[in-house]
Amino acid sequence: MFRLIAAVVGLFISLPVFAEGLDGADTAWILTSTALVLFMTIPGLSLFYGGLVRSKNVLSILMQCFTLTCVVSIVWLIAGYSLAFSDGGGLNAYIGGLSNFMLGGIAEDTVSGSIPESAFALFQMTFAIITPALIVGGFAERMRFSAMLIFSVAWLLLVYVPICHWVWGGGWLSDLGVMDFAGGIVVHITAGVAALVAAIVLGNRRGFPEQAMPPHNMTLTIMGAGMLWVGWFGFNGGSALAANGDAAMAMLATHISAAAGAFTWMCAEWVRYGKPSALGAVTGMVAGLGTITPASGFVGPGGALIIGLAAGFVCFVATNYIKRSLRIDDSLDVFPVHGVGGILGTLLTGVFASNALGLFGGQEDISISSQLGVQAVGVLAGIVYTAVVTFVILKVTGALIGNRVEDEEELEGLDLVAHNERGYDL
User: Fold this and answer.
1) How far is CA 358 from CA 168, 307, 351, in A?
2) Is-contact 331 140, C-beta < 8 A?
3) Closest listed residue to residue 96, CA positions, set 160, 47, 35
4) pLDDT at 148 over 90
5) Quick check: 318 pLDDT over 50?
6) pLDDT digits (tens, 9 = 90+) for 21-66
7) Is pLDDT of 180 > 70?
8) What is the rounded average pLDDT of the residues 74-91?
9) How far, in Å, are 8, 18, 27 from residue 12 at the CA level?
10) 3-state SS, one letter per residue, for 195-210
11) Which residue(s) pair with 104 in the sheet?
12) What is the rounded distance in angstroms from the CA atom of residue 258 to the CA atom of residue 128?
């Protein structure tokens, strides 16, 4: 039996012979990470969001996340990947080209670094899927299903793809030296800002903020939160694009920041309201995860702890300010958690990535002051571009088909109005 096991292990070790430059261990890790990131959207984010809305809208949220997985996959195949990661020639600073249209030029033996390019394209597809799915939380319970689909496709091509190219595809922010390991700018700032703009353009839900709109099923939300936590190991660890020390450190930093964010939010809530809540704990966890994302492959455990503690407190304050002071109905707190977390994490990457801090475990030989300036440019570019283009897209979809359901439909609930089904039929 031992000899049989040794033979099987030897077979897997020999995988790199299939293509020059291919590493079997790296390939296996990226394939695993791809599955983990998709797991974050369905079922992770679906259940997390589904539990947070009212029972009459739970199925609509699940349907939106599921449908976006399908639609974004098709758009990514046709042109998204090519525009994000291929050479755009004279426009390469801003957008890629169409040399990989319909994923053309990618075959079984096409390699990207030490992994098959098909695995890289699929891994990046899962990032493209979850980003517009995050935005759903900003307009939950009040946007037409058809408008959501049109908006999401346009937003993916006009916002996500260009910014992805700027940061990861060899664009101008990459040339500037912006550090964004797994999507602080590309995923969290873009999704958070878009959700805030959508919440403002569509307006508040009927009854907000006078009427309480608590989560209808915290069990679903906590289950989804646990899936997000596990899936985030693929999100951040997989962004190393190799099975190496960077991936391991990214996973360690991710876990520490999530734990610190959850505990800090829980304590802040305990002090302010007298009791810690399960909702606060899982929201703090997501804040810690989102905030560590841009820094995860650059910082050490000490830096991750500080980032997680900052995330829990800052995002807690931001959530209360958006809802209570500004009275903006970002239904599921996408901007104060993901947007503010992405901004905070991207800036703190410029601090804790530096090895000059010693105790905090930075790995990069960089000047904190100069890198902070570069990070700030990336943050500002992501915010302004996303806000402007998102606003324009929403105005166009509103003029064409109308973004928001009628008042009577909102009262009835989107499960029946949009899908003629119920999330619960007991």
Assistant:
1) 28, 16, 12
2) yes
3) 160
4) yes
5) yes
6) 899 999 999 999 999 999 999 999 999 999 999 999 999 999 999 9
7) yes
8) 97
9) 7, 11, 11
10) HHHHHHHHCCCCCCCC
11) none
12) 22
In the chain, the amino acid numbered 195 is: A
pLDDT digits (tens, 9 = 90+) for 128-139: 999 999 999 999
Determine phi and psi for 298, rounding to 5 degrees: -115, -20
How far is residue 207's CA from residue 138's CA, in Å, rounded to a whole number?
16
Residue with tokens 């891994």: 123
The SS3 call for residue 78 is helix
Average pLDDT across the chain, whole number: 94
Q: Do 269 and 277 touch, CB atoms closer than 8 A?
A: yes
Residue bearing tokens 């973004």:
403
Give Cα 146 to chain centroid, integer Å. 23
CA distance 363 to 353: 6
- Taking only Cα atoms into account, the Rg of the chain, rounded to an integer number of angstroms, comes to 21
**332's tokens:** 């599921």
CA-based nearest residue to 115, from 247, 250, 249, 289: 247
- How far is the C-alpha of 359 from the C-alpha of 394, rounded, in Å? 46
Identify residue 73 by its one-letter amino acid code: S
C-alpha dihedral (170, 159, 140, 333), degrees to nearest 10: 50
The one-letter amino acid at 74: I
Taking domain 24-419, whether its CATH number is 3.30.540.10 is answered by: no
Query: Which H helix or E strand runs over 306?
Result: helix 301-320
Confidence of residue 360 (pLDDT cuts 50, 70, 90): confident
Q: In the numeric block, which tokens belong to residue 258?
A: 């999530």
Segment 288-308, tens digit of pLDDT: 999 999 999 999 999 999 999
Other C-beta atoms lying within 10 Å of the C-beta of residue 245:
11
